[in-house]
Amino acid sequence: GVNESVSAKNDSKESSHGNIDDEFLQFQKEINQLETADKDESKCDQNVHDELCKVLSSMEGNKCRAPFRSQRGEIGYHNAIIFSTDLEDDIDDIQDVMVKVMFCNPVCEEMRPCPYFLDGHCKFHDNRCRYSHGYSIKYSDLEEYILPDYSDVDRDSRCLVKHEDGLWHTAVVEHYLGDHKYFVKDSDSGDTITVDAHDLLPLNQLALSDDDTSSSESSSSESESVAEFRSPNGASCYASNEINYSVQVGSSAMGEWEQHTTGIGSKLMAKMGYVWGEGLGKNSDGRIEPVEAIIFPKGKSLDKCAELRSVSGPESVEDRFKAEQVKQEKRIKKMENTHESSIFTFLNQNVGRNSRELIRTELPKKRPSSDQASNSNKTQGTDLNFEMYSVGEDIKKTKKEIIKLQQSLQRNAERNEAACAQMKQKMTVQTGILRNLEAKEQRIGEEINKKKNHKKIAIF
């Protein structure tokens, strides 16, 4: 009985030792599995990170459209190039990656790439330099690059034009000159310049800011509101509430009245984009003849003014009134020269006639004194000198007018044939006036020299 109990105890001890060994082996097996899983996971994460690095490195140098917030708070998308990428260790999604871009068409100094930074010699920090060392933006905020389409560039098309300072300014296309050259008008200054195609970026439907988006939508709605119809001859027309003026060749120059003023009207019109020689309006198809200022005579009734207006016809009321004033002055002078007819006038004319004739026959005719002759010569010489001076001033003004017409003719040689014809006609008239003035100046000079020579001879 004792042996059996001892053997039973030994068996229980052996079984307990076997269970502990099995549990320890199972524990080691599970630990090995966990270590293998951690290694696989870290290896997978490393592979993902390496793959992201490869993708981002391949993206550097690609073109895109990146948003830029201006100092006024407006956000607009501009053409840019991905300059560099910044991948942190804890980022696994490419959409969260920060990239630095350089703008291709900078519109302000903050967007302009720093030339010293690109060469590696800029001594300022990224935040201290006035130019751009790269604009940081999320990759998810980038848009696809859009190739510029020059086929839709037409008159009144919005565009960006590169200036000498390296910045791009908004402008409006005025005319296509051929050979990839465009004639554009700057939206800010109103100046017209000629640019090549590589210095022009058509905006088309691109919006540089939120204001551009709203303005493009309003312009599209306005264009849709215009109804198209067919005229009797089959030509297509557009019905709108705008008044269309036909181009008319004017007989007088726009702003001709400013020769007596400081010319502020012409300066304001030039600021607003008016080109001399063209008609008014958006398409330069408006009136060229200036609006006539009608001045009615002072102290006259409305009926009298209306009568003068109806009788004058094409002649202005002011000219008509001036002509009447001249006639009235002549009439008054004539009345002053005529003596009043009375009995005393009759007696003086008839009774004193014989005595006056007798005195006239007895007394010898007085010769003008030397003082009177010298005074008359001085007066004539002064008049000639004054006339010579006035003719010289007229010649200067006429030459300046001819130079202005020549410059205007060169500017509008390929744009407005009607205006060019008008300017040529004016140049012909001004040239004839100049010839007459020069001939008059020559005659006056000869007269002055003649009097000087006569005076020298009279001394001897």
Structural descriptors:
SH3 type barrels; five-stranded antiparallel β-sheet; 460 residues; 48% helix; zinc ion binding; four-stranded antiparallel β-sheet; transcription; alpha+beta; 10 helices
What does this structure look like?
- The chain has ten helices and eleven strands.
- By secondary structure, the chain is α+β, with helices and mostly antiparallel strands.
- Among the domains are: about 55-140, SH3 type barrels; about 155-200, SH3 type barrels (Roll); about 385-460.
- The strands form three sheets. Strands 8-7-6-5-9 form a five-stranded antiparallel beta sheet, with no helix packed on it. Strands 1-2-3-4 form a four-stranded antiparallel beta sheet.
- Strand 1 (about 65-70) and strand 2 (about 75-85) form a beta hairpin.
- Helix 9 (about 370-410) runs antiparallel to helix 10.
- The radius of gyration is 48 Å and the shape is elongated.
- It starts with a helix and ends with a helix.
- Transcription repressor.
- One of its GO terms (cellular component) is nucleus.
- It is found in: Nucleus.
- Keywords: Coiled coil, DNA-binding, Metal-binding, Nucleus, Repressor, Transcription, Transcription regulation, Zinc, Zinc-finger.
